[in-house]
Protein: WDTC1 protein
Organism: Nothocercus julius
Amino acid sequence: MAKVNITRDIIHRQIKERGALGFERHYHVTDPFIRRLGLEAELQGHSGCVNCLEWNEKGDLLASGSDDQHTIVWDPLHHKKLLSMHTGHTANIFSVKFLPHSGDRILITGAADSKVHVHDLTVKETIHMFGDHTNRVKRIATAPMWPNTFWSAAEDGLIRQYDLRENSKRSEVLIDLTEYCGELVEAKCLTVNPQDNNYLAVGANEPFVRLYDIRMIHNHRKSMKQSPSAGVHTFCDRQKPLPDGAAQYYVAGHLPVKLPDYNNRLRVLVATYVTFSPDGTELLVNMGGEQVYLFDLTYKQRPYTFLLPKKCHTSGEVQNGKTSTNGVSNGIHLHSNGFRLSEGRGHVSPQVELPPYLERIKQQANEAFACQQWTQAIQLYSRAIQKAPNNAMLYGNRAAAYMKRKWDGDHYDALRDCLKAISLNPCHLKAHFRLARCLFELKYVAEALECLDDFKGKFPEQAHSSACDALDRDINAALFSKSDNAEDKKGSGPIRLRATGRKASISEDEMVLRERSYDYKFRYCGHCNTTTDIKEANFFGSNAQYIVSGSDDGSFFIWEKETTNLVRVLQGDESIVNCLQPHPSYCFLATSGIDPVVRLWNPRPESETLNGRVVVDMEGASQANQRRMNADPLEVMLLNMGYRITGLTSGGAGGSDDEDSSEGQVQCRPS
């Protein structure tokens, strides 16, 4: 851990007042603070699960909501309960929010009784009750730019808007997801962009996350009101679809194709939490049944779709990321991702040798790979990639580690790394072969065969290797099996939007929006999110340097944002951690879950005794969570009871078949 001397910055902050904000942002949450993060206090006062937490803008108040239908306002800095009141709800409270610019006087709650209540904390009274939803209210959202307005998301599939300056008894429907996705869709979460309050993100019980332009939605509403066929409470009508630009969809590129398999295994994909980064340029999604995903809203990228490769022949000698004087593209077109490899001879920039310290990291990663420590190898390669983002060899090696680990989404990340390596070096032999293997593992069988044929033509000396023969056998067996013929993806509509049994209820406009969806930038693995649908993931730090998420194993996980490496795991609950809300300006974290307490975490003094809540074996915890996510309900129950399930290994998590041991060095060994 690098030592940091902040003396000069402190002096600069004192001399120049404008430097105070920069100082706070830079030192708000640092690596030494994360390494020393520990439990400061437990706030006791609830008698049921604590399902939601909310800081006020200054960070001197913390509100909590619980299954006991009470909300409590705390002084977290002094560990005191300032106020406790029954909210008038008759079921579990799922969301609590301070209304902006109300002097922390107005608090809004949403609950499982389908109601939204507005409370005046100064008199401890409920001043407004809204009962327009017909199913559980899961989230409330507010916006600083609109101090009298807020929104709710509920399991009736509706996003409702409230304006306390107008009729206090009614709300209006802003978005009706059922018009596009059928009656079974449920809105689970929503959030407003903190830097541009005109944008609203919505998550539902499906892998797609939607980003709406509220201004365009309102204009659409006005036009629908003028239409004689418009419904009373719906202005997202089938007859008049949303205008272009009013909605953007985001999805992890592999999930739409995996959805039928997940449905067959009764594994539900649901966005349990969405939030924007402090600067509003990134969107973080905790995907229930899967991983945590970060989407870049500025530099968007389409999901990686493999199109028909063009044959080309070359005598180039650039292989596996190493230097050559000549090279030719394999003709793979990545139209959906915005770049395309050339079909003829082109110039390949010589690969710059890694500096000595990065070469050492790469060698450490190779050694971890040789010892089958896949996660450690991935983390080391990721560290090196952050410092050398244009080195094809590092991407190719990390792809090999992903393919060996086989956690959920690993083969898709490996495919992305292979394509990146090929874009940097079109004659990267191992990346080409691994690409074919990834396509096969992702069930793109016909495309895998085309890619393998292209590989054989490009690298004829490898055409009859044991690795090629093994993959060729696997592909042909899959092509000729009756089950795979039924699931054949080629020539039957959009390849990423396979029918799921509910296709008839999805409108054509919805299909178009899904096909235009954007892919993720980063993926964070290790936690488990299958048991509750309110599990949060958040940015930690004013510059969003870290990602935090709760987990079904009672822990919460902390990752470096840029490398995606797991850096800290802490035991936050006896059962499940659902809520994590970082303080707006301190390295201070509030968490809650099944236990009827709120826990506060901050960096502990260096002189303090060993933190008993630290999970030392982070790799073991992550592997156990991968098994948990892929276990059947009986196995999950046994895991919760403390029994150890045998027969499930980290290599099997994710449901992929073991690779043939005869695949040879072209597949397995890093460069």
Notes: The radius of gyration is 26 Å. Residues 14 and 83 are 37 Å apart (CA to CA).
